Every structure is written in C-alpha cells, then in structure tokens.
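Mods, move this if it's the wrong board.
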Amino acid sequence: MKRFNIYGSLVIVVFMTMIFSSCTEEMSEVRLDPTLATTQSMNIGSDTAVVEGFVVAEGNGITERGICYSTSEMPTVDDNKVVYEGETENAAFKVTLRNLDYATTYYARAYAISEKGIVYGEQLSFTTDPVVPTVTTVDVTDITGNSAKSGGNVTVAGGAEVTAKGVCYSTEENPTIEDNKTEDGEGMGEFVSTLSDLKGNTTYYLRAYATNSAGTGYGPQVSFTTLVDAPVVVTSPVDNITKTSAVLNGEVTYDGGGTVTARGFVWGTEENPTLEDNNVIASGDGVGVFSETVDGLTKNTTYYVRAFATNSYGTAYGDNISFRTLADITKFWVVGDYNGWDNSDNAEYIISTPESNGLAEGYVYLTAGGIKLTTDHSWDNAHTFGDDGSGGLTNPGDNIPVPADGYYRIQANLSDMSYSLVKMVWGVVGDATPRGWAADTPLEYDQAQKVLKGAVHFVEGEFKFRANNNWDYNYGSDAADGNLTAGGANIPVDMEADYAITLDLSTPNEYTYRADRWGIIGNATPGDWGADTNMTWDETNQVFTVTLDMTAGEYKFRANDAWNYDLGGDINALTPGGANIAIGEPGNYTITLDPWAKVATVTKN
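Not the wrong board. Structure tokens:
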C-alpha cells in the first residue's frame, strides 16, 4: 500500500508529437500525451526531436526529470537521457533530443527521480527522417567541342531509396538539377554520364547529384572547358533566279566557339558540292547573313548549292538545296482581226514550256482574216512577228493568214522562226462513245465560255479527246484526274449514262476536262440525301432533265453521285458548292439543268 502511494504521487502522464522539418536540423516536437496514448500522429526531424513530459503530482519531491531514449524498447536512464534543467513550477517540461541518427526508430519515455526511486511514463516511438544522399563527382573526360563524359558514385543513400542520379551542369557555378542535367538511373553505386549539345570553347561547371525523398544531394563541383566546335551554317532559299544567274543566300548562326575565318557557297550540277569542287564563291567571314550572285549558269538546268563556314575546327556545310534556272520561255500575244487588233493584255496568248525547247503553243478561236504575234504591246518591229512569205516567221512580216473562222491550235518557235495554224474540230472517240474507235463524236465550241462541250451517251469502256479524226491530235489523262496530256492514257468510263463533256483548252499547256453524269439529291427527292435521282439528256432542248414527285424540302444538283462537284444557289446562276435549293410544296416536278451555263428550271406539272 505504501508503494502504491509513492507511485501514485509520481505518475507522469506523457505523450509524444514529433514535428518534421525536411532536410534541416531544426527541432520538431514530440509530445507524450497525458492519456499515455501511443497512437498519436508524430512529425519528426532527421537528427533532433523535442519531447514533452507532464508531471501529474509532485509526490515527495522530484530531484530530476527528463526524457530517456534508445533504439531499443523500454529505454531507461541507463540508456540515453536528457535532463530537464528549466523551471519546475509547471507540470509540463520539454527537452530536446540531439545527435539522433537519420532514418532510425527510437523509443522514448519521460522519467522522474525522487527519493523513492525512478518512475517512467508510457513508451512511445518515432522514426527520424532520412537525409539527402551522399554522392561524389567523377572528373570530366572525352571532352570535344559539343560533348563530354563524367559521372559519380552514390556512396550513402541517406536512409531512403535513391530515385534519380546523374550530373547537373551550367556555365554558372554550383549548378543544380534546375539547370541542365543527365538522368543516369537510380539506386546506389557508380554511374557514367554523357553530356551533349554543349557550346564550343565554353567553361562549364558540373556536379553529380542523387535524389531521394528527403531531397537532392550534390557532389563536389568540377569545371571543364570544351574545345572549339564546328560552326553552324544554314543554306537559305535561292532567289532572283533567271535563265543564267541566281542569288545564293546563307547564314552562319553559330561560330562554334571560335572565329569564322571564311564563309560562302559551293555549287554545281551534282548534289552535295564541297570546297574541293571548282565552283566556290567566298562571302566574307564571321557570323550572320550573307548573299552572293552567281552568273554564267546554263538555261533550264538544275543546280545544287550549299553554304559553308570555316573556323579552327574545320569547315561545316549547310543543307544541300536545289534550284533550276529559267528555261528560254517565249510568250506571244495573238493579235488580229478576231480581236480588232487589240495589242494589250486582253489579247489571247500562246507560250512555251521548259520542256518544249522554245515551242510556244495555245488554242484561240480566230475569225477569217489575219493575225500577228507580238512579244510585248509596243508594236516595235523587234517584238512583232509575221509571215515571211514562205510559211515562216520574220520581223515584222506580213499578217499570218487565217483562212476561215474556227478554233485553231497556234504554234510558234523563235529558235527556228517557224509557226503553224491548224483549225481543230474536236470530239470524243473510244469504245465508250457512240461511234467507237472508228470516228469522233463531235463537241461544240462555246465562244462565251471558251470551252468545247457536248452531251454524249457513254457505255462502260474508255475514251479520248481527238481532233479532225486524226490521231496526230489527241489528249488523254494518265491519272484520269481531269488533267490532259498529249497522247495520254485512255480515260475509263465505269457506268453507262448520259454525260456532260467539257474540254477546256483555253489555258496554254494546262488542258483539262470534265465528264459528268448529273442527278438531283436532297430531302425533297425520292432518294433523300442518300441517293441521287439521275437526269437524262434532252436533245431537243439541249438540257439534262428529270420528272419526279417531290416533297417540300431541299435539293441540289450533283455530278457522278459524289460531293466532289455539285451545283446550288440561284437556279438562274448556279454556283459550285452553292446553297440548297428549296421546294415549297409537294408535287410532280420537271427539273432541267444546263451544266455549262449553270442554269436550271423547276416546273410544277
């Protein structure tokens, strides 16, 4: 019973709360709860903790109070202890545990010593935080103008898993992982780091690093200086290209850490020219933009060019780019009775191509009388060409005779002073056409639209465009894509129907065609928006037509059951891709379409 009174008067109620301070050695607090609970949330530091005790009753006088602790359970004052040396008027007291090991579990108890002996509070445990890893830095080796090697060794993990390691580097001292860094794995041990994209002739500072949950630790700093690197030079697009000259452009964007002592261009008719080739144009020194003109080139020829720059490292080249000099293109304005001798841009023209060796060509509707060819609008004798009396060209010459009205292919060539006028009657020919391959089905020339047109009933098969029932004058389409080439491939027809045929030769050397089946589609039609209602050709009225029952709604004209080409909007001036056309009330309707004039009619029966 006496022993009970002694312990009853000296019972100390203790609780611990640990306050975490990351990556520092500031103190955090661990409080022993008066209830002696062991389930309290605790924050900790890496090498310190503040523990608070609470004396419930003084008893027969306490001569010493404090906190004892150990890495083993149930510590006593014979283990580690910290004596409280402050005021004792209050029941609560605090002590600081110092020099703790990081990432270590400790057990702590408050204690009090009186003349009757030692009394301990309830035990609580806490674990100190980890610290950042310890890492060494390896000397830098294999230094070039833009790369180097280094690395390090993680010797101490710091009580937590090492999740990243490598080297960080900068042109400023004491680099961190916020600067440039490598990533070379995780965990303890040695690692090798490769640095790239460095600047030439530049001093860098480098430290190894390792990261765990406590933060990032750095090794000692080392420095190194890169060698002079190759310069960086850009070959810019070539401009001001003529038949025999061009302006070459380049830029040195980086000197490699050295002095650019020479720069310029290398060029030739073979790809990737070098300084060892004969065609070199110097253009000063240093960084920046530079340009030079190259003369004496051959007409209509492909050349290759690279900019270059030289420093103490050597010579670097820009990308290899190509350009082609202009061909000897000739453009003739066709002036004559057909246009009232209007020698202006309003006149039709013919022109040569880079591949035609100076032969200019074009199609013009002429009236009986005569024409001349001019290379400008001055009527100057040197730029005016006519007939020399024997079927050739001369300056200024007589009028070139036009025997009758018609659509003519005109050709002229100044290299041999020749010309020709051939009146063309165009049509379609092939096993898809009404006359097969034996004879042309003619097309009609529309002077207002400058196209040849016609409605032809095609069957499945192939066709071409041919003039004058003569295979000397024919066009096909190698890709069946609407573009024509002389003597090109047969054009396929995959469905029997009435077709609107359009042959457009109005732009010299850029000849096109269309072959369209027409129908109507929309929610006012029987097929809704899912299927076309086909139209047929009305030979008498020269329109495509269809009669059908329609509901109130909308529709459009569509070619070839596809949305590649459709007509909508005002029925008196239809436009490709135009708006839907409205039908106000249901009924039986007859609808017509002239796809060339882009005019339609809608009649309720």
